[in-house]
Specification:
The complex is a heterodimer. By secondary structure, chain A is an all-alpha fold. Chain A has 33 helices and 2 strands. In chain B, strand 1 and strand 2 form a beta hairpin. Classes of the chains: A mainly alpha, B mainly alpha.
């Protein structure tokens, strides 16, 4: 069923394209079906997955697990393995739910003249690749879907009718950075697989088991010397995808993309992919000082600077984009801290972020459409013109700031709880302080958003249509998201009958054995809404010590944020003193401008368009690659060459041929006219054929003769176009150089041939073919039996080469630029 | 290319013979010297003889299919012959042998089809290159960028 979901969503992209072409009027009704069906299916799976979820366990995603496996290439460890556990379920529901809401929203957002066919196809392909990522459990399958998210996001970001050039270059930037990161990820996964083979974790030959490794296997991985490179490469992959500090700059640059794209990217796909992988692998790779320190350091940087930049943005989308970076930073910190509390905080945080960011982006889309501005300095008086949007925006801002009653509040609370639960005091206080600082500024950002609602009414220039409230389809998405946020938020508080006490949390389907615990007031309870009940992967926190700390932290964050509000003008107008050389955009532009240049130079060097250069380069690479190992082999392993034994059974007429061949070659080299050269080559070829006959290879002789004949004809065709006499066009020095290259290659090949002839042969292989060809291949011509039967795949490969060569020749002759 | 009545007459006569010989090489290759590759080369030399004596335009006219398409077709044919065994849930390119023997060829199997694919590919490849070059030669020397 999981495979079916992934396959179905993969097919949704082309299917949606076709459906829109066939029934253009019905697309509003048909398109939501694609995300809706799997979404409902997964909703029904919620109880099954959450059953038996033990939130105190060290492995946080230990509830029910659905697994499906289909063979792919077993020898390479590839299989279509899909797993649905609590973490995948959370992500899958967010991905499908957001896709559903955006499909409802987007047709009204785009004006009628925009061709949206492609948009929905891209949206669905993005959905499918992200869904495949979170559901697959084979490492290589994960990587494939990981790459697909980058590619599909490229198409999504670059989708826009206007500003094509900038959007496309920004999309390209995102693509280059994320796929560059995924190269690092691939390397890390390969190393991981290598360790697993090396440690002989035979149970884990299928990589699905990696995620459920035993304790001793984990330590054997973490003690391996390759562990550090694995972690660092893995983190590069995740950080590029999740727009973390050194690679953060692509995310704000994608602002030009249409609102539905931004909403989807920020809330469900792409940037969440990195967080997903961090959360998924933290039980495997995490827990070590390297993992914790790197993640917490980078996460803190992003948490703080992201929100500082966000507070200073005047573009609404810019504010939201930088705030997303900051939020992602906090998730990175939580993934670094590890442990059950941090995992819960991560899960709720991701849900809360999806709900608030998703709704905020959609609401900004409403503003952009009606007020035609995203500038925070311009927008005001929203409550008078667009009352519904204004109300929703206010609630969304509150959720983003984490006010009580919203899921954002619970997320923030769990975030602090996860931090104070960490045993290491240094890490605890470091991330504690950073989170506190970021929540000051988060509140400030929410305040700036809220200000749009109030203030005097915005007037448009004359002649433009009056600002009016948007239609229901553009409101239903944010409305549902915010209702869910509020519902879960209030319910979380009511469930514990205590307000502002840290063990407020959302608990659902509490395991029976935990029900009797004294302080836990959680009861088995049905979820409030069928939709997105995944926040239920939570558990009450009962340590009073941490409770007090969390309480203090929350109080402090309100206080600090409140104080900051008094300094609003100073904060928004000041700029951080960042030197221009630190601007990553410029660095990227510098690299981006020089790489094509360098590539061009390098290509021209290697592929100058002259045949003799190509040949010389090929031969020189052959020399460089083969001759060192050949020399080593000869100097160490070979017996001294006994020429007498070689020459003993050479017959007289064979000497004749051996002497004639060099003469033919010399004639070719010294020929003054093309005809002479062709004759020389022909003589050499014919003599070779004669040699084959003498040594009992009639097949080869026949082939050699015909090839010789045909190449003679082809050469005649070519030379009939060229002048009849050779001209000397290269200098003396180049001729000597080319001669040296040719001589040394000839010496190398001769040496190799002699070595093969003198080496002891493995008669087993030859005997196998000789004895088996008649009974198994039904033929006496052993060479041909090998070609067409025993090694027929090689033959197929060879004629494929012929095909490729033909295409090349065809292209060269027919698509060249004629002068 | 000068037209020679002698060459034209001979090549007309030799063409079917060469082609039959090439088929023979293909069919007997399993047991005796020959095979798809040599057969294909010989078959294409029969066509190239026509190019030499009548010119590339004539060769293109008498060929029922463009030779470069023949390459793709041969590759497809060889691949398809390997897929036959997959219908019996065996590995790609496993040979299937038929019970009846045919005089002259003896056993018949999918290997012969693969060899046929090689034969077609080689004929297409060699002939199309020869025709390309002959057309170049016919159109006269163009400005050669190679210097």
């Amino acid at each position: 069923m999981l495979a079916l979901i992934v396959l179905g969503s993969l097919l949704a992209a082309p299917a949606s394209f076709g459906l829109q072409r066939l029934f253009p009027s019905l697309k509003r009704w048909v398109l939501p079906i694609f995300p809706f069906v799997p979404f409902t299916f997964l909703c029904f799976k919620i109880p099954e997955i959450l059953k038996g979820l033990n939130l105190q366990s060290s492995y946080p995603w230990n509830g029910g697990v659905l697994t499906e496996r289909y063979a792919w290439v077993p020898a390479l460890g590839l299989e279509f393995a899909f797993t649905l556990d609590a973490l995948s379920l959370l992500f899958a529901l967010i991905i499908l739910g957001m896709a559903l809401l955006i499909v409802i929203y987007a047709p009204s957002y785009f004006s009628a003249e925009v061709e949206t066919d492609a948009f929905f196809a891209f949206l669905f392909s993005s959905m499918a690749s992200m869904l495949g990522l979170v559901l697959s459990s084979n490492l290589f399958l994960i990587f494939i879907f990981w790459e697909l998210t980058s590619v599909s996001s490229y198409f999504l970001i670059s989708f826009k009718a206007s500003h094509l050039a900038t959007t496309r270059s920004n999309a390209q930037q995102a693509l280059l950075i994320t796929t560059g990161g995924s190269l690092a990820l691939l390397l890390s996964l390969l190393l991981l697989v290598q360790i697993m083979h090396g440690e002989d974790l035979s149970a884990n030959a299928n990589f699905q088991n990696l995620l459920y490794l035993e304790k001793k296997d984990l330590t054997s991985i973490q003690n391996n010397e390759l562990y550090a490179p694995i972690v660092l490469l893995f983190l590069v992959g995740c950080f590029t995808k999740s727009a973390q500090f050194p690679f953060h700059f692509w995310l704000p640059n994608t602002m030009e993309a249409p609102i539905p794209v931004s909403a989807y990217l920020h809330s469900a796909t792409m940037v969440k992919a990195g967080i997903y992988l961090l959360a998924r692998f933290s039980p495997v790779l995490g827990g070590t000082p390297l993992w914790q320190n790197t993640l917490i350091f980078i996460g803190t940087l992003n948490l703080v600077f992201g929100v500082v930049f966000a507070a200073q943005q005047n573009d609404l989308k810019g504010l939201l984009a930088y705030h997303t970076i900051s939020q992602l930073g906090s998730f990175v910190i939580l993934a670094g801290l590890g442990g059950p509390q941090a995992a819960q905080a991560l899960a709720v945080g991701i849900l809360a972020h999806a709900l608030s960011k998703g709704s905020l982006f959609l609401l900004v889309g409403n503003l952009e459409r009606e007020m035609e501005s995203r500038n925070l300095r311009v927008l005001s008086g929203l409550r008078r013109v667009m009352p519904l949007t204004a109300t929703l925006l206010l609630v969304a801002a509150l959720s983003m700031a984490g006010l009580p009653g919203t899921l954002g509040f619970i997320a923030k609370e769990l975030n602090f709880a996860g931090i104070v639960a960490n045993p290491s005091s240094f890490l605890r206080y470091f991330s504690y302080g950073a989170t506190l600082l970021s929540s000051f500024l988060g509140l400030f950002c929410a305040w700036r958003l809220g200000k749009i609602v109030f203030g005097r009414k915005l007037r448009k220039k004359r002649g433009l249509p009056k600002i009016k409230e948007v239609g229901i389809t553009m409101l239903v998405g944010p409305l549902l998201l915010l209702l869910l946020s509020l519902g879960l938020g209030f319910w979380g508080i009511l469930e514990n009958k205590q307000i502002l006490v840290p063990n407020i949390t959302v608990v659902q389907n509490q395991p029976a054995e935990l029900k009797n615990q004294p302080a836990g007031s959680a009861e088995k309870k049905k979820e409030p809404r069928a939709e997105k009940g995944k926040a239920a992967s939570l558990q009450t926190l009962q340590t009073l010590l941490s409770a007090n700390r969390v309480l203090i932290a929350l109080g402090l964050s309100w206080l600090g944020g409140g104080i900051l509000l008094f300094f609003e003008p100073q904060i928004t107008s000041s700029r951080l003193p960042i030197p221009p050389w630190l601007s990553f955009n410029q660095l990227y532009a510098l690299i981006g401008a020089n790489i094509p240049h360098a590539a061009r130079e390098f290509t021209l060097l290697l592929q100058g368009g002259k045949l003799r250069i190509y040949v010389a380069l090929l031969l020189m690479s052959l020399l460089g690659l083969v001759s060192p190992s050949f020399y080593l082999f000869v100097s160490q392993e070979m017996r001294p060459l006994a020429l007498e034994t070689l020459l003993a059974d050479v017959r007289l007429y064979e000497y004749g041929i051996i002497i004639l061949i060099p003469i033919g070659i010399l004639v070719t080299i010294w020929a003054k006219t093309t005809l002479d050269a062709i004759m020389g080559v022909g003589v050499v070829g014919a003599l070779l054929a004669l040699l084959f006959v003498l040594f009992g290879a009639p097949d080869l002789a026949l082939t050699q003769l015909i090839v010789e004949l045909l190449s003679l004809v082809l050469l005649l065709f070519i030379f009939s176009v060229l002048p009849p006499r050779f001209e000397q066009i290269s200098s003396h020095r180049t001729r000597i150089r080319d001669g040296l290259i040719a001589l040394s290659v000839g010496a190398l090949i001769t040496g190799l041939t002699l070595t093969v002839a003198l080496s002891p042969r493995n008669a087993e292989v030859a005997n196998h073919y000789l004895t088996q060809s008649l009974p198994k291949g039904h033929g006496a011509n052993v060479v041909n039996i090998i070609l067409t039967d025993f090694r027929s795949l090689d033959t197929l490969g060879e004629i494929t080469v012929l095909f490729a060569a033909m295409l090349g020749i065809y292209g060269l002759l027919y698509f060249r630029q004629r002068p | 290319m000068a037209e020679s009545l002698f060459l034209q007459t001979v090549s007309r006569l030799v063409f079917p013979l060469l082609f039959l010989l090439s088929m023979l090489l293909l069919l007997q290759g399993y047991d005796q010297p020959g095979g798809g590759f040599v057969g294909g080369l010989l078959g294409s030399s029969a066509i190239i003889l026509q190019i030499l004596s009548f010119g590339p335009l004539y060769a293109r006219r008498i060929l029922p299919i463009q030779p470069h398409l023949l390459v793709a077709f041969g590759l497809l044919f060889a691949t398809a012959s390997g897929m036959w065994s997959m219908t019996n849930a065996e590995a790609f390119m496993t040979n299937i042998w038929f019970e009846q023997t045919i005089p002259g060829i003896k056993h018949l199997g999918t290997a012969l089809l693969l060899d046929g694919g090689v034969y077609i590919t080689v004929i297409g490849f060699t002939t199309s290159i020869a025709i390309f070059f002959a057309e170049e030669a016919e159109n006269g020397p163009e400005e050669s960028s190679e210097k």
